[in-house]
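Recall the central idea of this unit: under ordinary conditions, the amino acid sequence of a chain determines the structure it adopts. In this exercise we apply that idea directly, starting from the sequence alone.
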Amino acid sequence: MIIATTTVNFAYLTGVWLETYERFKAAVKCGDRIAAVVPALDAGRVPGEVYSYRDGEDPAEALRQSAAGCDASVIYVDGGTALRHFEIVKRAFPGAEYRLGDHIFREWRLVKRRDEVEKIRESASAIRRVVEELELAPGVSERQAAARIYLALYEAGLSPGPILVQFGPNTALPHQEPTDKKLRRGDAVVIDVSAAYQGYFGDLTKSFFYGEAPEEYKAVYAAVEEAQRAALQSARPGASAGEVDRAARSVIETRGYGPYFIHRTGHGLGLEIHEAPDVSPGSRDVLKPGAVFTIEPGIYLPGKFGVRLEIDVHITDQGAEVL
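Accordingly, the structure predicted from this sequence is:
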């Protein structure tokens, strides 16, 4: 039997993204059967077999009822379960043996169903439109530009995730959040946008130079672009995620920028913005049809500028497609 109490794994099993804050919730899976345990005020939001409890009642009783007929001798629980919620689980099944179930959810969620892929595709498409339509002018701040992107995504029906807008030397800091720094002609620009459509994330990054780019910037951009192409060409069913990282990293190292590529080549996408597969050096994650991940090599020259280019990729039976 498997019990998921985290919001993301509850959503994976039930199809409902339900935030209950401090109140207990769980999706219980045994065999092909899935039951949900939720507060009474949320019972109408979850389809299927639902067991609810009211404030003041012990959720352990509803949890016990939800597992009627299931073998509860061994229970797998997701690792993000809050300790106070794990105590509820233990009250419901005091004689069980408990095991960590993260590897089970990881394998399930690594391979996306067609409907999941299409939701990620819609997220990526909407992000691309919003970024292309963004108008920048000298004097606009990183924070103002990020706010415009956030609003445009929200109006497009998406749930915005982290949005990074960086100008000038800030682009050399991969995770620098937007500041009050204002755009000037002659600045490098990095725009990294994530957002979810019906719970599924897309994540794209665009880099460009505002004004006439110097030769050094052009050389760095060309190296990153070539690295991304090499990674995309290496992405195929049966390859390891580490091979994809190696393909990108080899190009950048050959160009002499190896020390300035300071992060992994990519990460999986789905209900979370970072999930399996892990496209990092040495990763043994095997790419299977249905896997969706980013390819985002970057080069960062401290105090000068950075360039990162990010696409979202879906592994098919034939190879890889860009979403």
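Helices lie at 7-14, 59-66, 83-92, 102-110, 114-133, 142-155, 215-234, 241-254.
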